[in-house]
Design goal:
This protein has one domain. It contains eight helices and no strands. It has 167 residues and is mainly α. It is 77% helix and 0% strand. 32% of the residues are buried. Helix 2 crosses helix 8 and helix 3 runs antiparallel to helix 4. The N and C termini lie close together (11 Å). The longest helix is centred in the middle third of the chain and has 25 residues.
């Protein structure tokens, strides 16, 4: 029974991270910490072998280093980098390429939507909640957590975690 709860934890945390990023332009550290902590519990219940566990840990470490470099270069926000690294623990090396491709494609679509909205809908022309107006402002960033979460939810059913917890 607990393994079915863990099966839903990852999608719920990713959806919450996306919503928080869209509403506040921040991804709370507690989401990434929850994903990292729950990873070890879920790995036990999913029946991952020691080799699979080490592979997932290596994947998370690799993505963390790359994201840290991207953050230092100003390409990524800190919350985005931490979320991508924490979620990569769950995704694993086997599904890392589809995950990164999914993040790239979803990010490109999100960028097109934001560019269109910011260029063709004048600021202040729409009566909307404050968070919508913040997203519309040209000087604000883009909530990339949406792209990260979309790709994670797309790839998750193919992961060893999902297979181990669902069966």
């Amino acid at each position: 029974m607990i393994d079915h709860s863990l099966l839903l934890l990852f999608p719920a945390a990713m959806a919450f991270a996306a919503a928080m990023d869209m509403l506040t332009m921040t991804i709370p550290n507690r989401i990434s910490l929850l994903l990292v902590g729950a990873f070890f519990v879920a790995a036990y219940f999913a029946g991952l072998s020691q080799q699979q566990l080490l592979s997932h840990l290596g994947t998370g470490a690799l993505v963390f280093v790359i994201c840290f470099i991207l953050f230092a270069m100003g390409v990524f926000g800190g919350g985005d980098a931490k979320l991508l690294a924490a979620s990569s623990l769950w995704i694993g090396f086997d599904q890392l390429l589809p995950y990164v491709m999914g993040v790239s494609i979803a990010g490109a679509l999100l960028s097109i939507i934001f560019l269109f909205a910011r260029n063709y809908v004048p600021e202040g022309s729409v009566s909307a909640p404050r968070w919508v107006l913040r997203l519309q402002a040209r000087e604000s960033g883009m909530p990339y957590g949406l792209a990260i979460a979309a790709a994670a939810l797309w790839v998750y059913p193919q992961t060893a975690f999902f297979q181990g917890l669902a069966l």
